[in-house]
């Protein structure tokens, strides 16, 4: 799809008056920012505007624990954590001390971020080794081939400031807590000195400024549980908050055809600036704009069923963190926020989408985005959100039976020891069953130890597909919580466009490719666009009965190959049967690929007991051809046992195994594998794949 085709697609999806209005806003803001760029106030001007005699008075203004109501003492929190979450105090102190020593975790790697002359090397990509120009205008940074700005942004978002504040509050010795508070002050002061507004990589978009402001405000509120910020920290933090509020408002990311999670970050950051420094003259306007903006984006970007409109389950998690943070801020500063029921629905959707392991499926992009920096979390982890939602709305149905105690860490910090005690007493609801989210195009089949997370529906962002992949009819499969059939994930965005396009391609996913075609053509040079040409739709969703059943189709190959791809899934206690039907004419090059999370599966012959179980599965799905027991794939699942993958296919097609890679989180690549069935196939045709879970405790299939 070329530029003309892409803009024609946008015009068909987005009303022309909206496109014109967004273009006008961009032009007006650009002109205003050139005439009066948003800058930090002078120290004297800041104190005068706030009516403070000096930095000590400013420190007193910032010494207000929020957003929790009421405040609690560090001793009460420490006792609650020690009682309910053993080891959490020590973990928080270890994280804080690592941050004070300049050791940060950046996308799964611990890196040393210290400059040779002291402080943090803020402009560095600590993973790929180079640096961005810290003095160049942010709007015109010189090219930095091979570098990823997201790696530098991970340093500048201020998550380590929250870690330092948590450590300062929990440290058992006053001197130790003071040292961590001093490290926080030094880091904030160093950031302000090394990153003047409008210069370098950290002021390239409002989203980053908004997240940084939220984390700075969170750090100040946490620190206030123990002590007022030092005058030097108060002065630099207040100037940075004012500069951030001005910058966010001047560069608000509502100018795209379909504003997305960036705009939510903007509103959250603006509200954090207003709530952290309510005496600032601009704060009332910021609060009003941000509160209304968050309510509007919640209505626009979250379906009534509780799922994000992003077209990505990991981005649903990120959006939920952002909206939950905004809800807490708005609730602390005034009447109950609007549309609380929709936020509650987001928590319920998260509970329904979370696997038995507590992880979300990687369907769509995953940039490991995180807004609640009170504990390090894995890139697909979601159990902590179930606990937070349960405590926030007093809804025990959101809790997971047998969940680890540390799911409750965020609720403890944000809502206090009383919420932690409530979580300890609450009785979790029953595990979720099969569930369908048609607006998001995500559906879950559950029976026994098996869970299948299926992508089938429209592209997100109203069809623009900025965070979508060509994964229609693909799925992730877990057995007893262990990931078996996987999504490839997303290791990179702009640093390597060709890699991004490969990981969002049809061939990268657990689905069928016909004649090497994409389900939806990938627009060249548009990393965050995937206009929906597949037209995927759910044909049937039938939970219960002898099996959990789902059927769907997409028409992405019709225009170029004349083939409709339909997929039927039947999940029973014994396993899962997937039937792929290709409706069309002629002979086509067909490739059925199953990406596997384990790097070393093996081909072997099924045992007699396994062959009998596969035959029962084939009868359940009413297959005309039995699965071939002489060539099955065994996928190790650790304590969960193993998964057998067998095929029922026309003569001449046989499974092959090959090494592969998958991305469990942004910027990460680990060894994986892929099982492939490929060759010419006369259509109409059908292929069947049988997945049999064999529990570890015995040799007999479940």
Automatic annotation (TrEMBL):
Keywords tagged on the record: Lyase, Periplasm, Signal
Domain Heparinase II/III-like C-terminal: 430-679
Region (Disordered): 117-143
Gene3D superfamilies, sorted: 2.70.98.70, Chondroitin AC/alginate lyase
MF annotations from Gene Ontology: lyase activity
Main location: periplasm
Ranges of residues in domain Heparin-sulfate lyase N-terminal: 116-334
Location(s), subcellular: Periplasm
Pfam families in the cross-refs: Hepar_II_III_C, Hepar_II_III_N
Gene Ontology CC annotations of this record: periplasmic space
Ranges of Basic and acidic residues composition bias in the record: 117-134
Protein's UniProt name: Heparinase II/III-like protein
């Amino acid at each position: 799809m070329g530029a003309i085709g892409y803009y024609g697609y946008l015009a068909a999806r987005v009303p022309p008056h909206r496109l014109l209005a967004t273009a006008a806003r961009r032009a007006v803001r650009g002109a205003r920012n050139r005439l009066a760029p948003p800058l930090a106030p002078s120290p004297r001007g800041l104190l005068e505007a706030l009516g403070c005699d000096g930095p000590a008075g400013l420190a007193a203004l910032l010494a207000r624990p929020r957003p929790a109501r009421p405040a609690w003492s560090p001793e009460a929190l420490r006792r609650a954590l020690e009682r309910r979450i053993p080891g959490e105090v020590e973990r928080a102190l270890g994280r804080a001390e690592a941050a004070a020593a300049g050791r940060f975790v950046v996308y799964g790697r611990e890196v040393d971020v210290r400059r040779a002359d002291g402080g943090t090397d803020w402009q560095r990509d600590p993973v790929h080794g180079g640096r961005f120009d810290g003095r160049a205008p942010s709007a015109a940074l010189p090219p930095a081939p091979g570098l990823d700005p997201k790696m530098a942004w991970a340093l500048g978002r201020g998550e380590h400031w929250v870690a330092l504040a948590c450590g300062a509050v929990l440290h058992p010795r006053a001197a130790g807590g003071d040292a961590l508070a001093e490290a926080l002050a030094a880091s904030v002061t160093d950031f302000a000195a090394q990153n003047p507004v409008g210069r370098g990589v950290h002021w390239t978009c409002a989203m980053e400024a908004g997240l940084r402001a939220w984390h700075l405000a969170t750090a100040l509120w946490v620190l206030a549980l123990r002590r007022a910020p030092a005058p030097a920290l108060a002065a630099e933090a207040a100037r940075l908050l004012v500069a951030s509020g001005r910058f966010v408002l001047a560069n608000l990311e509502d100018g795209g055809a379909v504003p997305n999670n960036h705009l939510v970050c903007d509103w959250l950051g603006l509200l954090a600036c207003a709530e952290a420094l309510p005496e600032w003259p601009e704060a009332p306007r910021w609060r009003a704009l941000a509160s209304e903006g968050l309510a509007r984006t919640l209505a626009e970007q979250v379906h009534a069923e509780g799922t994000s409109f992003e077209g990505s389950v990991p981005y649903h998690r990120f959006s939920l963190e952002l909206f939950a943070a905004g809800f807490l801020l708005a609730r602390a500063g005034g009447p109950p926020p609007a549309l609380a029921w929709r936020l509650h629905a987001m928590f319920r959707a998260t509970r329904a989408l979370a696997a038995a392991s507590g992880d979300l499926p990687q369907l769509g992009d995953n940039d490991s985005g995180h807004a609640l920096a009170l504990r390090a979390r894995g890139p697909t982890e979601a159990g902590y959100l179930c606990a937070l939602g349960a405590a926030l709305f007093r809804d025990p149905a959101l809790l997971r039976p047998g969940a680890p105690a540390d799911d409750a860490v965020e609720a403890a910090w944000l809502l206090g020891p009383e919420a932690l005690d409530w979580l300890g007493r609450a009785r979790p609801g029953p595990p979720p069953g099969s569930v369908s989210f048609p607006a998001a195009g995500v559906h879950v089949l559950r029976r026994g130890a098996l869970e299948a997370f299926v992508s089938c529906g429209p592209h997100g962002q109203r069809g623009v597909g900025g965070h979508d992949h060509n994964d229609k009819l693909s799925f992730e499969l877990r057995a007893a919580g262990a990931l078996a059939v996987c999504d490839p994930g997303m290791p990179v965005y702009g640093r390597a466009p060709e890699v991004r396009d490969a990981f969002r391609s049809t061939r990268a996913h657990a689905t069928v490719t016909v004649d090497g075609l994409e389900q939806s053509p990938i627009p060249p040079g548009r990393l965050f666009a995937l206009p929906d040409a597949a037209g995927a739709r759910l044909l049937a969703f039938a939970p219960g009965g002898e099996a959990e059943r789902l059927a769907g189709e997409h028409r992405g190959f019709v225009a170029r190959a004349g083939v409709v791809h339909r997929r039927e899934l039947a999940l029973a206690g014994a396993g899962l049967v997937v039937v792929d039907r290709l409706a069309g004419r002629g002979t086509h090059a067909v490739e059925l690929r199953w990406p596997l999370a384990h790097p070393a599966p093996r081909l072997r012959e099924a045992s007699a007991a396994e062959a009998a179980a596969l035959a029962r599965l084939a009868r359940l799905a009413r297959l005309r051809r039995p699965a071939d027991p002489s060539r099955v794939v065994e996928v190790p699942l650790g304590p969960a046992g193993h998964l057998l993958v067998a095929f029922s296919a026309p003569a001449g097609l046989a499974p092959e195994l090959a090494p592969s890679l998958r991305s469990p989180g942004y910027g990460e690549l680990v060894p994986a594998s892929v099982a492939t069935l490929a060759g010419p196939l006369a259509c109409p045709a059908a292929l069947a794949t049988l997945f049999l879970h064999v529990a570890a405790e015995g040799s007999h299939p479940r």
